[in-house]
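Cross-check.
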Amino acid sequence: MTLSVLVPSSLVREAEDKREATRKLGYVARAATVFRADRLVVFPDREGEQGWGGGFVETVLRYAATPPHLRKEVWERRDELAYVGVLPPLRIASTTGSDSAESGSLTQGIVTEVGPEGRVRVTCGLQHPISLLAPPEMEVEEGERVTIRISSREPVRARIVDAPQPGYDVSRMDLTEALARPDAGTRVATSRFGRPLSADGLADLTRRVADGATIAFGAPGRGLPDILGIETEAVAAASGEVEPDDPGFDLWLNTIPNQGSEVVRTEEAMFASLAALTLPSQTE
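Predicted model, tokenized:
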């Protein structure tokens, strides 16, 4: 299952200061990590931005996704990162844990030097950078992040492996472009005006998204209907089915039908929605 999560550039529009905005993005990063999102896309909502826009949101989310032992190598001092100390640790499981298929553990490294005969120098959280042989089928460049399998630390035994980077990728693109991706799967718009999620309908929905899903969220005080210029009455009247002016969703869904607060924050909606939508179906 490929899981893509879409959030607007106005995500931190109600934050009082940069510290609070950074903390909020940390919870978004946590939700993407906990539910194993493959892709976190920031789509533009410039009309709703207040103070910090898509560049700030993307930068902080990218920083949060960078393993702690690589952050000094990857990131220089930037104004957007002034309060990254408040970000909660992600502790991505595939970064620190062992893989059952092979001995050793996977981690990420960054190539700091490319030498002759396929040898490269890599910083990967050990006491010193190590020299490794790049796989013949891989073209490795300086500054590139690579996956390292460490089988022993004393003495050091490690190798570069052709494996996906653990965690999620962060990008910025238009909403329609993100929904049109070949691996988008079932495209879900979350809104309190959508079709209420129920226990009876959950099994069918999890089977529907089992092969992949793209799930979009709105911003504080500015839900997806407002961002897209769609009348909330039309969304409610359609019982969750798409409208002719819809940008490409398959379903409008209310994942918290009995909310007790007038406003559900985006990061709260992410945890509630992804917890339900990523449940394994009974056929798995």
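Residues 95-101 have pLDDT under 50 and may be disordered. The chain has two domains: 3-90+167-277, 93-161. Passed to J.P. for a second look.
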